[in-house]
């Protein structure tokens, strides 16, 4: 019964996240909470499904974690301890799980290696073709389109095109660089890469695709928020318009990297020119507690059957 409840929980959280988070006003007003909410929802779904699978394989023994009991039961069954039918079932389950894990791991490894190789090639290209701009502490590359982005790594590198230097004023360029530094300081690329790799494991999971797209939107809003706290909003807005305006040639920003003109341009402009009111502290506190508690729910539900079997039996028999 607890396994069914965990699956229902996973479905309910996924449905609620897809239904309400993209258009929630508090997410727009507090992008940091929005990013945390998406991650909490994804973690809750994954933990619920994993716990449900462990619960469904075999009943738990008091004081022994479900996954340990499941593995022990499978090993014993494969040795014939639970009869011929259980042995066949254990072998089939082991093979199926092995295939699923290998396919998922292969997708993640292949995608991770391709992403790393692409970024390494681009970093090498920037090193060879770019030139250091001592005054602004960035790397300048020749390209007509105004663009700016940060190359992730052990030492983040800020890359700006000659088109940006040509078309943006000094104040606008400084605001754009503050936006990019906010990306680096907030580890925004890592947040996006994590969801991207999870999406490779389950390419048909609409929640993971939506979470990746929404977090990509929210990290841009958050970076704008940080930059606007240090520089005039109008400078960043003007720079955004300039970078979003078509110029000669493509933008030249590597796919998957956070850039100065990323996200929803119209939404970002509206937020810069008409900033929303801050959330009340009481609401922020309540949302923070709820977001932090959400991934704990499936763990508590799974533990309830193990640590409090009488209570669990009473609850599910009602």
UniProtKB/TrEMBL annotation:
Q: Which Gene3D superfamilies match?
A: Metalloproteases ('zincins'), catalytic domain
Cofactor(s) the record lists: Zn(2+)
State if Amino-acid biosynthesis is listed as a keyword. no
- Co-factor note (free text): Binds 1 zinc ion per subunit.
Q: Which domain of life is it from?
A: Bacteria
Which intervals hold domain Peptidase M48? 121-195
Provide the protein name: Membrane protein
The UniProt keywords, alphabetically, are:
Hydrolase, Membrane, Metal-binding, Metalloprotease, Protease, Transmembrane, Transmembrane helix, Zinc
| One Pfam family linked to the record | Peptidase_M48
